[in-house]
Automatic annotation (TrEMBL):
<feature type="domain" description="Nitroreductase">
    <location>
        <begin position="39"/>
        <end position="199"/>
    </location>
</feature>
<feature type="binding site">
    <location>
        <position position="71"/>
    </location>
    <ligand>
        <name>FMN</name>
    </ligand>
</feature>
<dbReference type="InterPro" id="IPR000415">
    <property type="entry name" value="Nitroreductase-like"/>
</dbReference>
<keyword id="KW-0560">Oxidoreductase</keyword>
<feature type="region of interest" description="Disordered">
    <location>
        <begin position="1"/>
        <end position="31"/>
    </location>
</feature>
<keyword id="KW-0520">NAD</keyword>
<dbReference type="Pfam" id="PF00881">
    <property type="entry name" value="Nitroreductase"/>
</dbReference>
<dbReference type="InterPro" id="IPR052530">
    <property type="entry name" value="NAD(P)H_nitroreductase"/>
</dbReference>
<keyword id="KW-0288">FMN</keyword>
<comment type="similarity">
    <text>Belongs to the nitroreductase family.</text>
</comment>
<dbReference type="GO" id="GO:0016491">
    <property type="term" value="F:oxidoreductase activity"/>
</dbReference>
<feature type="compositionally biased region" description="Basic and acidic residues">
    <location>
        <begin position="9"/>
        <end position="20"/>
    </location>
</feature>
<protein>
    <recommendedName>
        <fullName>Putative NAD(P)H nitroreductase</fullName>
        <ecNumber>1.-.-.-</ecNumber>
    </recommendedName>
</protein>
<keyword id="KW-0521">NADP</keyword>
<feature type="binding site" description="in other chain">
    <location>
        <begin position="169"/>
        <end position="171"/>
    </location>
    <ligand>
        <name>FMN</name>
    </ligand>
</feature>
<keyword id="KW-0285">Flavoprotein</keyword>
<dbReference type="InterPro" id="IPR029479">
    <property type="entry name" value="Nitroreductase"/>
</dbReference>
């Protein structure tokens, strides 16, 4: 089954669930197997276009993100939604970061790199920047807070997919440069954990085929 088919199936099932009476709700239930195959069908898409999610869809996805496992409920994540002309400001922040990085490394940016960097945020109609705001906690070291934010990002991506949108998680070497952190008001101890590019596409990425878990699992039992 293709990715599109999975999406259609889930949408169809969700819509019919919404309309259904209690009597026929059973017959339109999404099966566990469908959910598992749907998770496996997620693919990143690099070039995205309108429509982007609306406010209620963004907030539904962020609510899912905020159900990620979170030791001591620190809620270390913050979400910044950038769209429209603001993407140009983001591009200028990326360029400032690229120039500063190049200067530190004794290099200069060529014209092509300047243009490319400025246009990076235009690859999707919306970017959701996810920040980890680190807190000191004797039982929750920084790596747990970063991982918790990573889990939130994955939930965010899946919740956007469930609403019919495509995404790609990009971070790259500029994400935590001072110019970018300053643009997003991210503290020096904090991290830009993800730029989630969000939008729509007609592009169909190939499926992954069978996933062989053999080399990645060790079972231990008495
Ligand atoms: C923390 C993190 C940062 C990433 N940064 C980038 C990036 O800057 N550029 C990029 O092309 N892919 C990046 N990726 C990888 C893509 O999100 C994606 O997973 C990869 O292209 C594989 O595609 P798939 O998700 O369809 O399997 C990053 C992934 C993670 C988890």
């Amino acid at each position: 089954m293709t990715d599109q088919n999975f999406d259609n199936d889930l949408v169809k099932n969700t819509e019919s669930r919404a309309d259904s009476t209690e009597d026929n709700a059973q017959s339109t239930k999404v099966t566990d197997e469908q959910v598992i195959n749907w998770i496996k069908s997620r693919r990143s898409i690099g070039n995205l276009t309108i429509p982007a999610p609306k406010k209620d869809q963004i907030e539904a996805a962020i609510a899912c993100a905020m159900t990620a496992p979170d030791h001591k409920k620190l809620q270390p994540w913050r979400f910044i939604v950038t769209e429209g002309q603001k993407r140009h400001d983001f591009g200028r922040a990326l360029l400032a970061a690229a120039k500063a990085k190049a200067q530190r490394e004794g290099q200069e940016l060529d014209e092509r790199t300047v243009e490319k960097t400025l246009k990076m945020p235009l690859r999707a109609p919306m970017i959701i920047t996810v920040v980890t705001r680190m807190q000191y906690h004797e039982k929750v070291p920084p790596f747990e807070q970063l991982l918790s934010t990573g889990a939130a990002v994955q939930n965010l991506i899946l919740a956007l997919k469930a609403q019919g949108f495509s995404t790609v998680w990009r971070t790259g070497p500029l994400a935590n440069e001072p110019a970018v952190k300053s643009y997003f008001n991210v503290g020096s101890e904090d991290y830009v954990t993800a730029f989630v590019y969000v939008g729509s596409t007609h592009c169909q990425m190939p499926g992954r085929g069978e996933i062989d878990t053999t080399d990645f699992i060790t079972y231990e039992a008495e």
